[in-house]
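Tokens help. Our protein:
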Amino acid sequence: MTRVALLWHMHQPFYQDLVTGEHILPWVRLHAIKDYWGMVALLKEFPRVRLTFNLVPSLLVQLEAFARDEARDRHLELGLKPADRLSDDDRGFCVEQFFHAHRPRMIDPFPRYAELLARRGTNGSGLSARSQAAQFSIDDMRDLQVWHKLVWIDAEYAANDGRVRGLFEKGRGFSEEDKAVLRGVELELLQRVIPEYRDALQRGQVELSTSPFYHPILPLLCDSDIYLRTHPHSRMPREPFRHPEDASEQLGRAASLHERLFGRRPDGVWPSEGSVSDAMVPLVAGAGFRWMATDETILARSMGREFTRDGAGHVEQPELLYRPYRVGGDGATVSCGFRDHALSDLIGFTYASWPADRAADDFVRRLVDAGQRFGARSSGDPTIFVILDGENAWEHFEGQGRPFLRALYSRLESHPSLRTVTMSEACADATQPLGSIFPGSWINGDFYIWIGHADDHRAWSQLVDARRALESSTGLSEQSLARAKEELLIAEGSDWFWWYGDDHSSEHDLEFDDLFRRHVRNVYRALESPIPEELFVTNISTRAMVTRIRRPTGLIRPTIDGEITSYFEWIGAGCVESANDVGAMHQVGPRPDGIAMVAFGFDAERLFVRVEGTRPMRDLLVGTFGLTLRFLKPSGHQVVLRRDGRLTDVLMVKRTAKGDWDVVTCADVASAIGRVAEVAIPFRCLNAKPHDQVAFFVTLSEGTVEREQHPRHQPIELEVPDERFAVRNWRA
């Protein structure tokens, strides 16, 4: 029997400024009304499934505050403010901030919300948010206030609650009373989150584990110079940060909060970002934890070897990975599970574009295969650890991921050779010793994300200075010292460092940077000490490589031959370059071959698209692989490119009134696949006239399964040119 230990990690940083009381970003509240309640409530349908939820304390204390209707953020306040009383600044904020949702799944499916986004236009329009807001009537603003929250309501709750269902059906023309009704639903959901986890714990279906209170990287708190183990020649902060007592306090506070909320101390801990070292193991054991977990890369490096995988992604050393270990020594040992990062990443990054049943079947097949491979090389029952983010991935799935989870849980519940277990059950029989554990995190087996950049170095140096100021303070009340210590512990959190450097980026980078520096400034305020000037200046000096869309600047007329015939033939085209995965989630390992760049442009009659891959497209588009141009505007059109031997096959399909797709014939559609893939589509084939808007995604598919979508979050958009396009752009 193969044991499957599935852990969903639920986490948000501490967004509140303790001085002003304001929560700077709304993600605790919005994820609570969708993922935090819905993920655990769903388990009632599958009583024989057992798994673990890791609940980070910085998330839980904010959930409590929002559930008591004591916490406030500007998004909430302006969402509730009467639409006719919004100031120009308020309106600008709403128009800028109230579309932060995954567009393909959370905006485009709802006509009124998509209409409002179209009215705002793209952020690249050059207009300020206040100028964009001038295009919105009072009724538009009120509808935006409703939709920006409504799409976050848990899908199952929405389907079964008449109030929410009524709002979706109404769609537009919302009233202030509708906003009040939605606020009532929001509060109900917020108030149900923690009790729902408590109930699942009490009925024995789930285990609840924790992380260090404000989610710091424990090894770096113990000694930031541990980073030099993997990067011995790296530049470092001005001075090392060495405060293992802070690491102990973060662990102890986490256990105490867990006991207060759930009636018992937790048995296990997911160290923030799976970050481990020999120095933190006795601290974990000393705080009373029996197990912890990290990534397979740490196990491999601890053993001084490399785990390899075959072409299908199966680990070739299953007898080493699929078992728990005992780490530590001198009586301070802890059981440790090591996650299979390939299986975990399939859920986090791949299955969102798959049909739910097919994704669940694929995952279960891989689990069974892994168990059989273990059995062929070792005795006993294998234990497969699957650990990943339990919130951010679901925005990319159909139905907020619930169809996939239902399909997966139903198969796991009834499978004859798989048994789901909690992390405590998975780690209970750990006997294999691991005397020393390699220092690193689940990302690349090191701490580069959090201390490898110049921006990180500035932030760590600021923490060192603030910690010294706290230690040297005299003559202050215990209350002032406690307030300063609290702010320091918050600033030690990993999230601020996650967004520094060029690894990850979001539209809220500046807010995260500001929050970090606010917390450090508040240390000095509590200590009644001068605040260093550098804390008023951003630490951000780099930007991540994100997807950038360059608009067409002139008419083009390329040769459609699958080759880069001439440098000049695509001058004037627009361009979308594929970026590294950025944002709140991070994928382990090398990214697979795929799309590297999409160029697009037009002449007066045709749309041209060129797709470049990480290798020649003739080698990438083999077998069942193909490219699809999926049009949102005009809707109901797709162009599919496939390669059969040396021949390129291009099909144009159109959605019928019944929702089926029929192949249609349209003369002069041309395509070629060689070093690149090129296609020319007459605008008349799309029923598009001058000044009409055209919007499309480019997808790489294997059979019926979409592997990639470009751009990831918003379509390529353009306007069909008229006869004066070239003149206007020449004058510009």
